[in-house]
Specification:
The protein has three helices and two strands. By secondary structure, it is mainly alpha-helical. The chain has a two-stranded antiparallel sheet. The longest helix is centred in the middle third of the chain and has 20 residues. It is elongated, with a radius of gyration of 16 Å.
């Protein structure tokens, strides 16, 4: 009889504990990261900067932190649409 291979459900990467779900549910990190990205995009929108600078700030801060959390599991379409609209509003 062959023993089943153990499957890791959490990993520590760069000081962050990542939990992966096998049942398709959201991870705790995703529930925190996407709203944080929307909040950061809102803060970028209030800065008196040109289009290019806002784009750089969005790419380096709001979007990367959100997508880092989104890489761990399925992301609801509603949350992605909120992030997308917040990013568009920050650029306009």
């Amino acid at each position: 009889m062959v023993a089943p291979l153990p499957v890791a459900t959490q990993v520590t990467d760069l000081g962050t504990r990542l939990q992966m779900r096998r049942d398709g549910s959201q991870t705790p990190l995703l529930k925190v990261r996407l709203p944080e990205g929307v909040r950061r995009a809102g803060r970028v929108a209030r800065l008196p900067l040109c289009f290019g600078r806002r784009g750089h700030l969005l790419a380096s801060s709001a979007l990367t932190s959100s997508l880092y959390g989104a890489a761990l599991g399925p992301v609801p379409l509603r949350d992605l649409q909120r992030l997308r609209s917040a990013a568009m509003q920050a650029l306009l």
